[in-house]
Amino acid sequence: MSRVGATAQDVMGFTVIGPDRFLGSGHPDPQESTQPPNLGLIRSDSAGRSWTPVSLAGAADFHVLRSVGDRIAGFNGLTGRLMVSADGGETWTAHRPPGPLVDLAIAPRRPGRLVASTDQALLFSPNGGRGWKTLRPRSAGLLAWPRANRLFWLDARGAVRVSSDSGISWRDRGMVGGRPAALTSAGGDLYAALEDGTVKRSQDDGATWSIRARP
User: Fold this and answer.
1) Average pLDDT of the chain?
2) What are the chain's domains?
3) Which residues have a Cβ under 8 Å from the Cβ of 205 and sit 6 or more positions away?
4) Are strands 142-147 and 150-154 parallel, antiparallel or unpaired?
5) Which three-class secondary structure state does DSSP give residue 71?
6) In b/e form, how buried is each residue of 73-103, taking b as 16+ CB within 10 angstroms?
7) pTM, to two decimals
8) pLDDT(103) > 70
9) CA angle, 115 then 121 then 124, to 5°
10) How confident is the model over 31-42, as a mean pLDDT?
11) Closest CA to 177 of 207, 150, 204
């Protein structure tokens, strides 16, 4: 791994929207005193080498950020609200979630459907975050939803489960081999970052994992 970009900004929420195109949030480089302490939604079209503001500067600190097409959903750590945008982050609607969100996933073909994780439960929303239903089992975890019939859940022990029915039922899939800190999908593969900084990749829907990078 190598550093990308010249600034030391603290990127909290992060999501990939295309080749070399990212959305993020967080806090500016301490040396850049002209920026607000919370960056709102920012965007990079250069694989993270440079970033430009999109919206909510000073008003949002997204700790969780996910996107499908122009639909963006994020948990604003400043207000405790779920923020949803249907136009790439230009305008937003705020909803009150059942609790602080640990992670969030958007259905690939039906972006109004959300599955979220709090520190105590998994939750499903059929209407973009306006209402929620508790799923079983009641446990926190990290989420990735790369395909309509493949919703992945990675729990605190590193166990991988998969659902083909929006989280109603789950099947055991594999073990990532460590305590996870983040989960995402790209190019048909799953990627998990562990607490020690190791990044692992699975090319078989979470059944087996190989080391992609070490810190």
Assistant:
1) 92
2) 1-96 (2.40.10.500), 112-215 (2.120.10.30)
3) 150, 152, 162, 173, 190
4) antiparallel
5) strand
6) bbbbbeeebbbbbbebbeebeebebbeebbb
7) 0.89
8) yes
9) 25
10) 85
11) 207
